[in-house]
Amino acid sequence: xxxxxxxxxxxxxxxxxxxxxxxxxxxxxxxxxxxxxxxxxxxxxxxxxxxxxxxxxxxxxxxxxxxxxxxxxxxxxxxxxxxxxxxxxxxxxxxxxxxxxxxxxxxxxxxxxxxxxxxxxxxxxxxxxxxxxxxxxxxxxxxxxxxxxxxxxxxxxxxxxxxxxxxxxxxxxxxxxxxxxxxxxxxxxxxxxxxxxxxxxxxxxxxxxxxxxxxxxxxxxxxxxxxxxxxxxxxxxxxxxxxxxxxxxxxxxxxxxxxxxxxxxxxxxxxxxxxxxxxxxxxxxxxxxx
Length: 290
What we know:
The structure is a single chain. 31% of the residues lie in helices and 18% in strands. The chain is α/β, with parallel strands linked by helices. It has a single domain, classed as Ureohydrolase domain (Arginase, Chain A, 3-Layer(aba) Sandwich). It has an eight-stranded parallel β-sheet, with helices on both faces. Strand 6, helix 4 and strand 7 form a beta-alpha-beta unit. It starts with 23 loop residues before the first strand and ends with a helix. It is an enzyme of class 3 (hydrolase).
């Protein structure tokens, strides 16, 4: 069984009944096996779906309604607890299948390591791939406590796979000195602390290219998103992240996939984090699925 049947009754609002008729597919990656501080992001996908019940289907920002696009919520992948390598293999295999069918994947994490197998499959499909990475953390470590499979390593792995010059990071405000040195020396683009203004400057050079967008919810200040495993003070607002999504949506980017990761609901009794995440996903669907 690839998908956890326990989640079959929880879908994102207005999800189509079948994958076959959909242009885009939402899927959950409930994994937090390698986190370095607080676990719980494996419960993020289901809570984001539940929070979507409170959303309007219409976006006044984009003047689009969810009924205008075809997407299917496939539920959560069934990942073996505590086994990062097998979990990664399952995600990568599923991604190969989705891309073979011509679908645009929208992943819900889960910790940020889940982005790594997706990028491997994406790069096979799109050799000219570029990555837009929006996050509080650099995620450029080679290992954490001796483990190369860690939520602190996916962007370093991406740089080594597709070339650092094709990786663009925004909002970064935390990491080891060596990570910032690597960013400077490798040729990747890194915007510290801010997202929207540096993103506006970069988007024209990515025009027409296949782009994968990965957003870690902890790019937001903890005031806006306390429900995450590694909260980091000094972040951006929900308003700025929405504006950044809209900036990408209004550009000539060819977004071939996206994910939203690191929502850990247990640390946010107000539920503002999954509520915000569900709105970001709505805007990504409406903005990226043309």
